[in-house]
Amino acid sequence: MELMVVVLILGILASLAVPQYYKAIETSKATDAMAIGHMLCNANRMFLVDNPAVVLSGTMSNACNTGACNTASTSVCRLVQCNYAAAQDWDSGAYTYSMGGGLASYTRRRTTPPIGTTRIPFNGWGYNFSLSGGCTTVGGAPACMGF
């Protein structure tokens, strides 16, 4: 009987702790996305100082990490290829990074739900950065801290 009570108490504690654990993981991924987004926004501003008439657009991918600096390209890959931003593992990260029309967007990538859950409620999280450096949240993402 005592063992059943202990197991019951542990089960209740686990049911309260597991959702908080997943939220902490997602919040850390969101913080990482904000930092990378801020880096890309700053890289784009530095790029615009050197190339004021060029507007970059597209989505970052691992293909951006290779190739020479193509001065005729308007692809967002030019930020990495021309050494304005550091190369990342864009394809397997938690967020997708895209840019267009003077706005950089970072949206939570769809992933497989953790075992025992039916969906991840954080898939719609994202951030938008303006060229002036302002940050706004999308889909209930944690606040843009420090940006």
What is the number of helical segments per DSSP (H or I, 4+ residues)? 2
Net shape: elongated
- Going across the major beta sheet, what is the strand order? 1-2-3-4-5
Largest sheet: 5 strands, antiparallel
- The assigned structural class equals alpha+beta
Low-confidence stretches: none
Q: What report would you give on this structure?
A:
Helix content is 36%, strand content 16%. It has one domain. The protein has a five-stranded antiparallel β-sheet with strand order 1-2-3-4-5, with helices on one face. It has 147 residues and is of the alpha+beta class. The model has no long low-confidence stretch (mean pLDDT 80). The longest helix has 49 residues.
Write a concise synopsis of the structure shown.
With 147 residues, the protein is an alpha+beta fold.
Question: SSE layout and pairings?
Answer:
Layout: H1 2-50, E1 58-59, H2 78-81, E2 95-100, E3 103-108, E4 126-130, E5 135-138
Antiparallel strand pairs: 1-2, 2-3, 3-4, 4-5
Index terms:
alpha+beta
